[in-house]
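User: Hi! Is it possible to get a structure for several chains at once, not just one? Here's what I have:
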Amino acid sequence: MAKFKVSSRIVRSGRSRWFSEAAIPFRHPGTIRLSLRIERLVHRERSAFQDILIFDHAVFGRVLVLDGIVQLTQADEFIYHEMLVHPVLLSHPDPRDILIIGSGDGGALREVLRHPVREVCLVDIDRRVIELSQEHLGFASAGAFRSRRARVMVQDGQQFIRNYAGRFDIVIVDSTDPVGASTPLYTEGFYRDVFRALKDEGMLVAQVGTFLDFEDIIRTTHRSLARLFPSVQTYRFSIPSYLCGDYCFIAASKAIDLAAPEFEAIERRFAVLARKKRFRYYSPAIHRAACTLPRVWRL
Amino acid sequence: MAKFKVSSRIVRSGRSRWFSEAAIPFRHPGTIRLSLRIERLVHRERSAFQDILIFDHAVFGRVLVLDGIVQLTQADEFIYHEMLVHPVLLSHPDPRDILIIGSGDGGALREVLRHPVREVCLVDIDRRVIELSQEHLGFASAGAFRSRRARVMVQDGQQFIRNYAGRFDIVIVDSTDPVGASTPLYTEGFYRDVFRALKDEGMLVAQVGTFLDFEDIIRTTHRSLARLFPSVQTYRFSIPSYLCGDYCFIAASKAIDLAAPEFEAIERRFAVLARKKRFRYYSPAIHRAACTLPRVWRL
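Assistant: Yes, the chains can be modeled jointly so their relative placement is included. Here is the combined structure:
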């Protein structure tokens, strides 16, 4: 699938520079482009794994781009990270040991640490994403990398997880799109390794993509996970800086019924967390709404 | 606000032609661009009211653009039209007389006619949109213009509605964005005229825009409507071909509590309609989910 891997295109137009995301959609690559005018180019390099671009945008604030695809923006990363972390961490009755694969920017780590977890391991393959995020995207981790409960490792998540059995309550797979470096994180073999690394009540959540781009991958992933886990739930919401409508995450669980988690317990624990720091996007009502899929995309 | 009005930009890049939507976002115009590669240019003209462009796209199918902004695409117009029409038509206990302002493509008309209404008036200011839609976007109206229950009038909706008092059960305002020709449809004076034209149990629904682009307009419109109508509900969902995340419609009602419509009755009537023709996006569960707003956008 390497043919979809692209470097960030920076295009001049008159006196301004534009970042142009051209790698989408999956089935008809290069027919839709999102272009963002660059206010200030903050950093650009090619790491051992990917093309990294950081710039400022008038509406989205600071933007992180990997391999030509927008990963997060300052204006809306809270939507992505709250919706990645809280549905599983609140559905699980007592999440203590958490593994995050990818997410070197630290946004998922920040949201996980709001919960009374014992330890969060963050494993990202690319040291430079972690370093550059701390240097230029401090809003994402908001100090989370300094937490005593955080263990950060630069490793291949796919290799890392093979060393564990029954070790984690939650595994969060926050990879880039299923192209390039992240392709192995979308295979059934990888999900089997995650299954093994989870405790008996363990849960997995993985980002997948939009129905428009990735409907086939969403359906394949959902099916792969349903062969391993008794309960699988795809949920969706939209992120302003991501093109093409509703964006999907898939959660899978060994014990908890994700279609009907105990919302009363979720409400209670949510209220306790919200007293310390408000949630901007996630709420138990939004959790329920996100799990409601339109007929056309029902899995 | 005429400064945001733009013609459709068609740009050459190598051997291909691209449509480029550059009028957004509202607060920082011209800093975000959506570009769609044109497979085939179907039609282009400047009518008395607006710039009209119709072309084919590999993913979105046939695309209608007015004044440089994507209005509908063949691939996802069902989301827009189902969500515009069914929440109000099912919340109202007995919708018989319906007025649609704008929507010359016929998509809203098609969805309204699925209900056992007596008559639907469609008032669009631009005869050319109606004509070109029937010629080139037949999938949108799907024969609805030929219905004996449809009355189509080429008129200014803002003028038209002043002639009526207590005449309609539902008024659907399906205008273009609050720029250019549609600006008068976003004023409190217009909403007052709609209020007067509605029967005692009457309801209004209007398209507004995304929170990212139009948060101020959404909040202003919500407040304007709340001064007139006892019940106002903003709801949201996402449309793949529209940029910038969740898109908002606002419904307002003289009698029915939109925050808690009778979902049992809605379920029953929905089931009857769905037996005749399946809904692809709308369902009572999606209705409820769409009315759930994240905290950051709560009104």
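Chain B touches chain A through 46 residues (CB under 8 Å). The radius of gyration of chain B is 18 Å.

User: Great, thank you!
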